[in-house]
Design brief:
heterodimer; A: alpha+beta; outer membrane lipoprotein receptor (LolB), chain A; 12-stranded mixed β-sheet; 12 strands; disordered C terminus; B: alpha+beta; 5-stranded antiparallel β-sheet
């Protein structure tokens, strides 16, 4: 009798183990996408990005308002967030106007009229100007590389933004549908050899960028940048006066700090 | 006994003076802090808002050490790019590295010297300004004590750069 009971118990235990193992295997399968699923996700993400960037490259002029925030890792290791609100008007191929208000109240404007780059600070009633004929790409590179003036999200406003965003790309995936500020969007995730970045692109006829998060994974503390779009206008008024800087009365022209003679500074060291 | 009393009063006065000076200094620091100058660095890689940091040449090595295995596993990085394009990119990266190094050198020299507007206003003097025409260009210099400053743009902010005294001063 006892023997029969024991056999039944062993059989029941074995059955339970089998069922458990089957469920575990199923769940593992569900959590780990297959190679085919990963490939499909990559293709979908790239297709959505290409559609969005292609759509934007066809737009001759646009005006976008967005908020940004970014972490700065302090010497103590603590991350402190700063940010600003930016209003950007681009008229391709060679006009740009950027107005910004930092959270600490500092305001300013950057102008590019195809010939000169100007930056103006109303609170200081000061401006700097430098000739840089060419196009938007050259002007932005000069501002970023030479004058140390960041142009956040400029990668997304470039005429060839698909090439810029996919340069050195290592992975791309479709995360899922996501509602951002009431806009139903496709949530995409990418990695290149320097950063991880996520994009939210509106679904529908106007596949416009809604949100960006960039993680600088190689930088100490892995700081993040985020940008959240408030409004897009794809048919803005773009008079030439919007892009050409006219100094207000009493405004003083000052140099970029990097232009102040190094000889003078070095002379001071002696 | 009176000598002891005098010493006590002196110590008390010194203490009061110390506390007053400390509070005044703290008020300056707090005032500067309110304007965003509390000693916090406000620029870093994340402030660029770009998916490319411009430090690719240097960071690639760091990335290899850190995530080398993942990259090898992915194994799809630039596999079908032409050698010529890679060589161009390496050359561009080298040029960018040189430009960056020169810029970093300049920044290192300036980083301790440039004052923000708030820090400049917090200086314990009333700055005076003089305009000096050099090569036909009027340049405004500001002096405070024995220090001389010139305004310039660092990023999007106006800063006061420490310079030597203008000719004739």
């Amino acid at each position: 009798m006892n023997c029969v009971v024991h056999r039944r118990m062993y059989a029941l235990a074995l059955a339970l183990m089998f069922v458990g193992a089957t469920i575990w295997a199923q769940e593992s399968k569900a959590q780990t996408p297959t190679l085919g699923e990963r490939a499909a996700s990559t293709l979908e993400a790239l297709a959505i990005l290409e559609r969005s960037t292609e759509f934007m490259s066809q737009v001759g002029a646009f005006h976008v308002v967005f908020d940004i925030g970014f972490n700065v890792v302090q010497r103590t290791g603590q991350k402190i967030e700063f940010g600003s609100t930016r209003s950007v008007t681009i008229s391709r191929p060679d006009r740009a106007r950027i107005d910004f208000v930092r959270r600490d109240g500092v305001r300013g404007s950057v102008f590019y009229d195809g010939k000169d780059i100007s930056i103006y600070s109303p609170d200081d009633n000061a401006y700097a100007q430098i000739a840089r004929p060419g196009g938007l790409h050259q002007a932005f590179r000069f501002l970023i590389d030479e004058l140390n003036i960041p142009i956040p999200m400029s990668d997304f406003f470039a005429a060839n933004s698909f090439a810029v965003l996919t340069d050195q790309i290592e992975s791309a995936s479709y995360v899922g549908e996501s509602v951002v500020a009431d806009v139903t969007s496709d949530h995409l995730a990418f990695s290149n050899d320097e950063v991880d970045f996520q994009l939210w692109i509106a679904q529908g006829e106007r596949p416009l960028l809604q949100r960006v998060v960039i993680t600088y994974r190689l930088a100490l503390g892995e700081p993040q940048f985020w940008g959240q779009v408030r409004t897009w206008d794809l048919a803005p008024e773009t008079p030439q006066s919007l892009f050409t800087f006219t100094p207000p009365d009493g405004a003083e022209q000052i140099p970029f700090a990097s232009q102040i003679s190094l000889d003078v500074q070095e002379g001071e060291d002696q | 006994m009176p000598r002891l009393k005098t010493s006590g009063i002196c110590a008390l006065v010194a203490g009061v003076v110390f506390v007053a000076v400390y509070l005044a200094a703290s008020a300056d620091v707090l005032a500067a802090r309110k304007k965003g100058d509390g000693g916090y660095s406000r620029s870093g890689q994340a402030s660029s808002g770009s998916v490319h940091t411009g430090n690719r040449g240097n960071q690639r090595d760091a990335g290899r050490n850190r995530g080398g295995n993942q990259r090898d596993a992915r194994g799809n990085r630039g596999g079908n790019r032409s050698d010529a394009r890679k060589a161009d990119k390496r050359s561009d990266a080298r040029r960018a590295d040189k430009r960056r190094d020169a810029r970093d050198d300049r920044r290192k020299r300036r980083v301790v010297r440039n004052l923000t507007r708030a820090a400049f206003r917090a200086l314990s003097c009333t700055p005076r300004s003089v305009i000096v025409v050099t090569n036909g260009i009027p340049i405004t210099y500001y002096s405070c004590g024995s220090g001389w400053y010139q305004r310039g743009y660092e990023g999007t902010a106006v800063v006061y750069v420490v310079v030597v005294a203008p000719p004739g001063y």
